[in-house]
Amino acid sequence: MNKLLLIAFLVSSSLVFSQKAKVTKGDWSDLKGITEYNVVFDYSNLEIPKFDSEEEFLKDKMAKREEKEPGSGEKFKESWLSDREEFYEPRFIETFNDRYKDNLVKVDKDLESAEYTMKIHTTMIYPGYNVGVVRHNSKIEVTLSVYKNDSPENIIFSADYTKIQGQGNGGFDFNSGQRIADAYIIFARALTKHMYKNTK
Fold it and tell me: Superkingdom of this entry's organism (predicted)?
């Protein structure tokens, strides 16, 4: 059992350490001294591998489900969209804040006391799959931007994160929402690691 836990830890650590951020504006040091962020999530122009758009992805998945069970297509769409607030966003926020213990740096939605906004624009989602005997990790790509609340056009820091991969939750990630949320957990861990290391 201890060996299994060690392997899981090593895999988890390697996934976090492998996440690299390509800084496209500013420098990590520009975030030094900021202790609170109002976090907003953006899913506009979302790419889904093998599909021309998110709309095409939803159309395809809904049609296949409707063939098997009338009404299930619309349920899938509703679930796909609601998973953002139900799974992705809270997992990111919880993980980020947990990594910064004693509230050294805090993020939250509608955080009125924060002077800065952290915008997380998800540009790509690969939901992965788990059919029991075969599974594949979820993946996301994100553009992170930081700006003062009253000056969204004046971005002080921006970075692109690619190849963010979920861990798989020990193989029990049958729900696509939870599977994708796992990638947001990995992203939050990588982001806090980079921020802590570069803003001391």
Answer: Bacteria
